[in-house]
């Protein structure tokens, strides 16, 4: 199913369903397809919104975790959302945390899966290796426990991004920003109930990262998914959706 991208003034987003807002924030190489099963499930109970993050459109100075968090803040303000359930994968989780620290009155719950913000085995400065399809394929496979999840379509998407010089520079800039912007000393100030859903076989943000988030965020709960990598909502959507449904049900209304 292809989702309609709607315009909210100068912002673009997918919006499906009705109910309490569930805002999904994707990662560096995130695409709408990453959240397909999640949207199909939760649009029956929530107003599911995926803002298009301008990963490649900000100025170099704004191409950072903070710059993207400011974009999310402007989007939420423009759409007049309140009592938001925020969910972020990888860099999206990091952006969500920065937003929640600055706007605690707006955020009702936070869900993190494979989030950066403490430590990540980033793709590093060598990641956008232009022209080397096999290198990109192997790197994309590392996102998952089952390498077959890295379909040709997905690898082609990542290859196209890394083969574009300007996009590759923006990816490096964002990856460096994520490493520099460590939230270790700030997480104690997160007030919203937080659900951590982590793949036990995540090699990009390994299990120790989830445990550290759990120890530092006061009102948090940690759920493990076995035989799962960095993107549980893609790799094991049924189990991910069950955990998230139970968490959101506790904080409804």
Describe this structure as you would to a colleague.
The chain is α/β, with parallel strands linked by helices. The protein has a single domain (5-120, 182-250), classed as 3-Layer(aba) Sandwich (Rossmann fold), CATH 3.40.50. It has nine helices and eight strands. An eight-stranded mixed beta sheet has the order 1-2-4-3-5-6-7-8, with helices on both faces. Helix 1 packs across helix 9. It is globular, with a radius of gyration of 17 Å. It starts with a strand and ends with a helix. The mean pLDDT is 92.
Secondary-structure blueprint:
Elements: E1 5-8, E2 11-16, E3 21-25, H1 36-42, E4 47-51, H2 65-78, E5 84-89, H3 91-102, E6 107-113, H4 133-141, H5 152-162, H6 165-180, E7 194-199, H7 207-216, E8 220-225, H8 232-235, H9 237-250
Parallel strand pairs: 3-4, 3-5, 5-6, 6-7, 7-8
Antiparallel strand pairs: 1-2, 2-4
Helix pairs in contact: 1-9, 2-3, 4-5
TL;DR?
By secondary structure, this protein is of the alpha/beta class. It has 9 helices and 8 strands.
Keywords, separated by commas or semicolons:
253 residues, alpha/beta, Rossmann fold, eight-stranded mixed β-sheet, 18% strand, globular
- Beta-strand content estimate: 15-25%
Kindly provide the radius of gyration, computed on alpha-carbon positions and rounded to a whole number of angstroms. 17 Å
**What is the terminal separation in angstroms?**
30 Å
Which architecture name does CATH use?
Answer: 3-Layer(aba) Sandwich
Instruction: Estimate percent helicity.
Output: 25-40%
């Amino acid at each position: 199913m292809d989702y309609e991208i709607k315009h909210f003034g100068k912002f673009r987003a997918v919006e499906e369903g009705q109910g309490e807002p569930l805002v999904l924030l994707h990662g560096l190489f995130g695409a709408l397809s990453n959240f397909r099963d999640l949207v199909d499930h939760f649009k029956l109970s929530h107003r599911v919104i995926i803002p298009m993050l301008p990963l490649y459109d900000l100025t170099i100075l704004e191409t950072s975790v903070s710059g993207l968090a400011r974009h999310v803040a402007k989007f939420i303000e423009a759409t007049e959302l309140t009592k938001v359930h925020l969910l972020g994968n990888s860099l999206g989780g990091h952006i969500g945390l920065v937003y929640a620290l600055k706007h605690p009155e707006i955020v009702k719950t936070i869900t993190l899966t494979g989030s950066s913000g403490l430590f990540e085995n980033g793709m590093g400065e060598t990641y956008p290796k232009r022209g080397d399809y096999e290198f990109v394929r192997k790197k994309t496979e590392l996102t998952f426990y089952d390498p077959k999840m890295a379909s040709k379509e997905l690898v082609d998407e990542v290859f196209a991004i890394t083969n574009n010089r300007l996009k590759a520079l923006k990816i490096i800039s964002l990856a460096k920003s994520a490493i520099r912007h460590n939230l270790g000393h700030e997480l104690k100030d997160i007030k919203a109930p937080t659900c951590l859903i982590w793949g036990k076989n995540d090699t990009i943000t390994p299990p120790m990262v989830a445990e550290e988030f759990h120890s530092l965020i006061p009102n948090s709960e940690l759920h493990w998914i076995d035989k799962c990598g960095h993107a549980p909502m893609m790799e094991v959507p049924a189990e991910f959706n069950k955990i998230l449904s139970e968490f959101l049900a506790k904080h409804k209304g």
